[in-house]
Amino acid sequence: MVTIDMEQPEGRKEALRRMLTIRLFDETAEKRFLDGDIPGFVHPYIGEEAVAVGAIGALEPDDYITSTHRGHGHCLAKGLDPERMMAELYGKREGYCKGKGGSMHIADVDAGMLGANGIVGAGPPLATGAAFSIQYDDRDQVALAFCGDGGIAQGQVHEAINMAATWDLPVVYVVENNQYGEGTPVEKQHNVENLSDTAHAYDIPGFTIDGMDVTAVYEAVAEARDRADAGDGPTLIEAKTYRYRGHFVGDEEEYRTDDEVERWQREDDPIETFKQRLVDRDELTDEEFEQLREEIATAVDEAVEHAREAPTPEPDEAYEDMFAEPAPEIQHFAAQFRADGGERGDDR
Amino acid sequence: MTAHAELETEATDRMTVREAINQALREELERDEDVFVMGEDVGVMGGVLGVTDGLLEEFGEKRIVDSPISEAGLAGLGTGAAATGTRPVIEIMFSDFLGVAAEQIINQMAKMRYMFGGKIEMPVTVRTTEGGGMGAASQHSGTIHTWIAHFPGLKAVAPGTPAAAKGLLKSSIRSNDPVFFFENKMIYEDSGEVPVDEEFTIPIGEASVERTGDDVTVVATQRLVGESLGVADDLEGDVDVEVIDLRSLYPLDTDTIVSSLEKTGRLVVADESPLSYGTHAEIATRAMEEGFFSLDAPVQRVGTPDTHIPFSPPLEEEVLPSGADVENAINRIV
User: Fold this and answer.
1) pLDDT (0 to 100) of residue B2
2) B140 annotated active-site
3) Which helix (H) or strand (E) holds B124?
4) A329 neighbourhood in chain B, CB within 8 Å
5) Confidence (pTM)
6) Distance between CA B257 and CA B245 in Å, rounded?
C-alpha cells in the first residue's frame, strides 16, 4: 500500500520508515558510485525525503506519478522494491528497466510510476496526459507530477499546466524547490519569490509549503488530490526543501558554502525533526528508531549484494524492447553489425 | 498482399485522400472507444485543411478535442495518455511545428518503451501535413519525415494514394507503437478507388507496386507517386517504368524495392524531402547493399535541393521536385 494515514501513529511511523529508507538507499548508492560500482550518474535525493513521502503518502496506490532525474525518493515512496531499484542502478537485467534505464529512468508502470526522467521539465506534460486518460475513462485516480525549481522554468511545463487547468484535469503539480537548478541558485532563475505564484496565471490554487515537514506536504497534497478527484482541476504546490548533496555525486559545489548546507541539516532535517516529534508524542523511542535504522540499512546492504551478484544482460538484449510490433531493420542491422563473427573486444 | 492487389478483389468507393483520411478516422473512432482526436482546430473548424471535418458533430467534444496552440503540450499529453490506457490521435497542423514539440517526441514518446525495458505500450498516432506548393513559405511547407524516420523508436508512414492513406492510417491508429502519419497537403484532392471494408488496413512497412514495368524502377512517396505514374504514362512505348509507392518510411520495405531493381536494373528515388543525408540516401544504400549486382546505372535522386521552401511562386516552383524532374532522372539512366 502506498497510502499513509498520517492521522494514525502507524501511518506516521510508516512515513518515517520511508524517509529513512530513501536516505539510506541514496547514501549507499552514493558510496557505491564513488567506489566505481555504479555506472553513469547518481543524483541523490538526500534532504528532500519529506516531499516524496508526504506527497505520495497522500495518494491512492493506483494514482500515477511522474518524476525527475532525482527520482530514487519518488520510486521508494511509491513502494518500489529497493532490490530491483539497486539492480537497475547496477545495470542488471533484474532491474525495473532490465538495465536499459539506470538511475535516471527507473519506471514501474504497474505501480503507477511513469518514470524518473533525464529531461528537466518533461514529467508534467506526461502527467497531464495521464490525467487526460483518467478523465476520459472516468476513472477514480489522479496523476501527480514532480518537477524541480529548474523544471518549472521550462516552457512545456507551462503548456501542460495550462491545458490541465483549462480542462479541469485531475492532476497535482508538485514543485520541489531545493534551492538550486543544477548549480544556479533559484533566485537567479526566477523573478517570483514563491514559485507557486505562477498558479495565478492559470487561475488554479497555488501554495508554497515547508517541504522539510512531511506532515505539511501530506496535508497540502491530500487537499489537492481531493480537489482533483472532485473534478475541480489541478493545484500547483511548491515545497521548499534543500538538496544536501551536489547536483550529482561528484559535483564540487562551488556555488554554495559548507555553512549553508550545515545550517539546513542542523536546523531543518526532515527525518530528525519528524522523529523527534514522534518521540515527544511517545509514539517512538530512540531505541526503536535505531532499530528501524538497522533494519533498513541491512535491507539496503542486501539489495547491494544482490545487485552485485545478479546476472548482467546478454548483449543481444540491447536490440529488444524497441517496438511492440516488428521493425525488421533492428534485427537485420544487429546481425550485420556482427556478421564477421567478431565480438566486442577489450580493444574498444 | 498489396493494396493494389486487394483493389482488384474488393468493393471500392472513389474518394479523395482527404475523404479517405476522414473516413479512416471515423471508422476507428467508431470501432474503439479508446481512440480520441486532439489538435489545434480539429473540432469546430474541422481542421485547418478540412481533414477532420464533421467528426466533432458525430463524436462530440470528449473525443474530438480542440487544444491550445501548444505543440509540446500536445505531444506530451499524447504520450502520457497513450502510456495510461487511451489511444490518442494527435494532429500537429504543419510538420514544421514538430520542431516545437521535439522534446516530448524524441526523448519521451520514442524512448519510453525501450527505457522501461519494454514494459509499456505507446499507441499514439501523430498526424501532420507536409510539402510545398501552397505558397505557404518555409515554416508551413517542410517535408521533414526523414527526421522522424531516422529517430529510433518511431515509425513513419507517408501515403501516396487515397487507398494507402486510409489503410495506413487505420494501421497506425491500431498500432501499439508511436506512428507518424505524414500527409502531403497537395494531394488531398487526388482521388482514387478505396476499399469500403472497415477491416481494410495496410501493414506498416509494406510498399506497393502501383504500376509494373521492366526498364526502370521509380520509388516514390506522397505527391511524387502520382506525378511518377503520369510520367510513366507519358513515356509508355519508349521506357517501361515501374512505380512503387513506398508508403512506409520506417520500417522500409527493402524486399519490394530490391525485387523491382533485380527486374529493371535501374533506380530513381523521388521524395520531396531535402536531398542530403535523408530518405533518398537510405533507399539508395539499401539498394546497393542488397542489390548491388543488379544495378546497371547509378541511382538517381529527385528531391528538394537542400533549400527551404521559398514563398514567391516562381521560386517555390523552382525548388519543388516535379514529374519533369523524375522524367529527367529516368532519361539520364536509360
Assistant:
1) 46
2) yes
3) none
4) 250-252
5) 0.95
6) 10
The ipTM, to two decimals, is 0.93
Q: Which helix (H) or strand (E) holds B77?
A: helix B71-82
Residues 6+ apart with CB under 8 A from B62: A136, B36
Q: Are strands B87-94 and B35-39 parallel, antiparallel or unpaired?
A: parallel
Phi-psi region of A71 (alpha: psi -120 to 50; beta: other; left: phi over 0): alpha
Encode B173-214 in three state secondary structure.
HHCCCCEEEEEEHHHCCCEEEEECCCCCCCCCCCCEEEECCC
Q: Which residues contact B28 (CB under 8 A, 6 or more apart)?
A: B35, B89, B169, B170, B173, B174
Q: Residue A155's Cα: distance from chain center in Å? A: 21
CB contact under 8 A, A325 and B82: no
Residues B124, A129: contact at Cβ < 8 Å? no
* Cβ-contact A134, B77 below 8 angstroms: no
pLDDT in tens, A255-268: 999 999 999 999 99
The stretch A132-153 carries a mean pLDDT of 97
Residue A114 phi, psi dihedral angles, 5° rounding: -90, 25
Strands B155-158 and B179-184: parallel
CA-nearest residue of chain B to A125? B76
* Cα–Cα distance for residue pair B307/B309, rounded to 1 Å: 6
Report the C-alpha gap between B123 and A170 in whole angstroms.
22
Cβ within 8 Å of residue A230, ≥6 positions away? none
